[in-house]
């Protein structure tokens, strides 16, 4: 195993992700940021300099558990202070498990600003994947707005709420097309054909393949909002990995992917080799106002400018939730994967609601809308400063709450309390969806846990009840770091508190998190050693270090 060093400058750059020039948050002058490739067991050391001039920055390594390095998790106000303009911070952490991951900004709405990239961990030396392939590609999916992230932030914090609306463009590896289509003859509503020469920043990244081979496609979604469905025209896909964990291979025509999730699929280039094929992504779960994202699967030696004669794959209807549920319910752990403990020590039920606070529209969990404190929790708890609400948030919601109806009193409160979890115990989380503020509306929320993988024990409809426990899958539940709750449904998760630190658990839809949709878990913080001072040089921990200096 080795240490891989990277020197990164984060700065605003002019870029054209979809043909319209914008200001994006780039790394080393590029968008998306550079891809990190490492091997399991390696140490990654990113020397990150903030060249943003007037705002702080942090980067979160999504899916990396940060075992023993909770201060490198890259969550502002949780694991560290935002890195000030001009300053350099060293993210040094071990990538212990092979898989498809990504990284992104975790301060304000910096993910929406374009601060993201791929992180790919290959199997360690002498190790083998449990499947074979001849070549691989990587697709990082995202969504793009023409309105800048700061304006979006102000819109979302306004009373009345100004909703940011649907994205203008879906991006594949940071590339999409606005106001034109690669498949104009099939586009609804009609769009002109894109006139591309191939060198443009918004030209699609074409996948060049040889006939009769097996390819691995790594796919990760870092969308701010959109849930997606991906398909390869004419080709079946076999899902083999989810969130850095192997799954029992299963075959599909199309797959859903929610923000925060990653997958690997295998496909065989067994179709007519004289043709090229579409790869498409479409919005799910929200009435789509965004054209599909496209790129080409180009069979060598065909010309890449030879467009497929068939239309791009037809996506399932945006509100065909049964289709989505059937995909989620096909995912099981590969035989031999770690099994969950048979019993839990504590169960926390988290009700997801949309609320008002003094007229402002917010999201709340058990009636608390998360507002982060000024001193990062990690230092705050480690040094006993406790600069947050010391009353922990509730483990449940009122029994008589009707999740199928609008809340009788939709007001909630702001809070920044912490779920203090006993070290080395088994925790069950039931994510309970509910009706939002509007009548008969309930949305999809992909929940992501930092510092851990969890087992997904099951999904259900309506309100979770004690008898649902019997239906939990304890035999081969998949290990993941992100799991979705479907409209008006619940999702059950289990994990073990074996990683000392403070960990965010939140909806991965960035505007939802911004509006308070998250909670904080802390476990074994007294066991955390040697937190680098640079991580905590703000708020009350910053003051503490200052006064110690004078002693
Ligand atoms: Cu990828 Cu806390 O998020
Ligand atoms: Cu959400």
From TrEMBL:
Regions annotated as coiled coil: none
KW Repeat (keyword) present: yes
Domain Plastocyanin-like: 10-122, 137-300, 409-524
GO cellular component: extracellular region; plasmodesma
A Gene Ontology biological process term: response to hydrogen peroxide
EC number(s) given by UniProt: 1.10.3.3
Pfam families: Cu-oxidase, Cu-oxidase_2, Cu-oxidase_3
Cofactors demanded by this protein: Cu cation
Chief place where the protein resides: secreted
One example GO MF annotation: L-ascorbate oxidase activity
Localization (cell): Secreted
UniProt keyword Oxidoreductase present: yes
The reaction(s) this protein catalyses: 4 L-ascorbate + O2 = 4 monodehydro-L-ascorbate radical + 2 H2O
Keyword terms of this UniProt record: Copper, Disulfide bond, Glycoprotein, Metal-binding, Oxidoreductase, Repeat, Secreted, Signal
Assigned protein family: Belongs to the multicopper oxidase family.
Function: May be involved in a redox system involving ascorbic acid.
Assembly and binders: Dimer.
Name of the featured protein: L-ascorbate oxidase
